[in-house]
Hints:
By secondary structure, this protein is an alpha+beta fold.
Amino acid sequence: MPNFDYAAPATLAEAAELMGSSGTVRALAGGTDLIDQLKSNRRNADLVVDLKRVPELQRLEVDAEGLHIGAARCCSDVHHDATVNALYQGLADSTGLIGSVQIQNRAAIGGNVCNAAPSADTTPNLLTHEAIAVIRGESGTRNVDLVDFFLGPGQTVLQQGEFLQELILPTPPENSASAYLRFIPRNEMDIAVAGVSSFIHVDPSSRKVLKARIALASVAPTPVRARQAETVLEGGVASEELFSNAGAAAVESATPITDVRGSAEYRKELVNVLTQRTLNICMERIGISV
Ligand SMILES: Cc1cc2nc3c(=O)[nH]c(=O)nc-3n(C[C@H](O)[C@H](O)[C@H](O)COP(=O)(O)OP(=O)(O)OC[C@H]3O[C@@H](n4cnc5c(N)ncnc54)[C@H](O)[C@@H]3O)c2cc1C
């Protein structure tokens, strides 16, 4: 591993100052991606700034804006949180399947997002909940819709000196739910061949879909919203046929590659199937049968 300086600030102001240092500065949350990248020389660093001790980056609380998740809060805490399990079920799904319990105890949601892997498991559900990324720099904060955060594999809108402070997820309405499923060839410890998160808000008396959000992992250079599928769903009456049409429409947003983990065609078929399954799980969670 290359030599680098290490700092563990205790305040947000100190973290912002350190992140603005000259040279190659890298944020560290759990280190489950970064340490491996440094060891294998896929990343370099003059300074690594450990963000875990900054209280604002450990937030996990609800206020009028919605749920605040500090960027360094570990996946285990999010997975077991009562609010997340009641209102953001797909996030409980995704944080509970990253790596192993040991990885979830270290890995932060912010690390998963900022690593910007197309296969990142927490991102699709964050997109379906329309998460806002609060980005901190030396001169203050700026907010970016998470859907606009990703530029390509490993690339984000973060500028030199900036880091992710927290994610804000608006409070979902009653009679809504979300779900995340991924396909991996093994039972665990694998990278998603494809992943789908769905969110729907349904009128309980008519079963009309009032709002739908679908997002995909591992089928494009960045996580993507499946907007055609959302259009198919919104205004329709929840049914097997509607969900089947949405699954087919979701495929339109997938531009996958063929690689060792699966062919492009296989990934598209997975998107179709996982979209329908996650929509059905959402309905079960709302408590309305299709
Ligand atoms: C055995 C194993 C299994 C895994 N399984 C999965 C899996 O199933 N699904 C999955 O999605 N991932 C998986 N991963 C990848 C990894 O665990 C996740 O991406 C994890 O969420 C990364 O979080 P972290 O806190 O460890 O990030 P770190 O390694 O600390 O950081 C990751 C990247 O983000 C940057 N960064 C971190 N925090 C910030 C911030 N606040 N602001 C700006 N930049 C920041 C770092 O500089 C680095 O470039 C696995 C990894 C291992 C080792």
